[in-house]
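lol ok so funny story. i was supposed to be doing the assay writeup but got distracted and ended up predicting the structure for this chain instead. priorities right. anyway since i did it might as well share w the group, maybe its usefull for someone
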Amino acid sequence: GCDYANQISELKRSLPQKCPFCRHPTPSEEEFKSRNLLKRVEANDPTAMRQLGGIRRNEGDYDVAVEYFKKAAELGNADAHYDLSRLYGKGEGVVKDKKRNRLLLLGIHLRGTILDV
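and the output, tada:
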């Protein structure tokens, strides 16, 4: 909501984009972005965990991606639930499990027991 509205406002007014969490200018160097992302992961930021999981998935490191998605999902990140459901549906980094795939897609889980689904 607010993050999206802020991004639109910055784009319309040609303002430099800012991080929605710390309101500092968005880093332009890749190394700085990675360092910032890792700091957010260490602070248990579920959005950052999901982002890092996506990076690892795109690199083909499915085992690490699954762990980051699970942590983010346990912290309540709905997009991480979706990402996990896709991995379970395709069997990438996990045993293919259509039941778990459907349950995650439907959001049928209890906080903290995502691994027991």
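The radius of gyration is 16 Å. Confidence is low (pLDDT under 50) at residues 108-117.
back to the writeup now i swear
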